[in-house]
Amino acid sequence: MPRNGPFEHEIRVAWGDCDPARIAYTARLPAFALDAIDAWWEAHLGGDGWFQLNLDRNIGTPFVHLSFDFRAPVTPRHRLICSVWPTALGRSSISFRVEGHQDGVLCFEARFTCVFVVADKLRPQEPPPDIRAIVEPLLRP
C-alpha cells in the first residue's frame, strides 16, 4: 500500500442493498464505510482488522462520532470505491475520513471518530506505540 495517498477499498453494491427507488438504502452507506475502515485496519495491521484488535490484542475501538454528507446516489451499476485515511490521532481517539465514489462521482463524505479502549473492560487507553507508529505517517486533513 503506497503511503502517499488514501487507502482504497472496493465494494460491490448488490441489488439487495437497494430500496424501491433503486438506490442503496441510507443505512447501508455507513455499513459500507465501516467495511472500508475495517479493510484499512487489516491492510495496515495485517491479520483481520477489528476482529484481531479485539480478540487477539484486547483493543476495542467503539465509535463516538459519525457524520455523513450525501452527494449522489449509490447504485449497483458501478463498484463503490471507498477512500479511507486517518485525519487525527489523539491521546485515546482516532478519526477517519471516508469518501465514496462511483464511476468518478463523489457519492458521500463521512467522518468517524472512535476511542481506544481495553476491550474487555471498556476502559479508555492510549493507542499502543506500534499503532501510533503506523497511523502518524498516514495522517492527513
Give a summary of the structure in a few sentences.
The protein has one domain: Hotdog Thioesterase (Thiol Ester Dehydrase, Chain A), CATH 3.10.129. The chain contains 3 helices and 8 strands. The chain has helices spanning 28-45, 49-57, 129-135, and strands spanning 7-11, 59-60, 63-70, 80-89, 93-102, 105-115, 117-118, 123-124.
Description:
- The chain has helices at residues 28-45, 49-57, 129-135; strands at residues 7-11, 59-60, 63-70, 80-89, 93-102, 105-115, 117-118, 123-124.
- By secondary structure, the protein is of the alpha+beta class.
- It has a single domain, classed as Roll (Thiol Ester Dehydrase, Chain A), CATH 3.10.129.
- A five-stranded antiparallel β-sheet has the order 1-4-5-6-3, covered by helices on one side. A three-stranded antiparallel β-sheet has the order 2-7-8.
- Strand 7 and strand 8 form a beta hairpin.
- The protein is elongated and about 45 Å long.
- It starts with 6 loop residues before the first strand and ends in a 6-residue tail after the last helix.
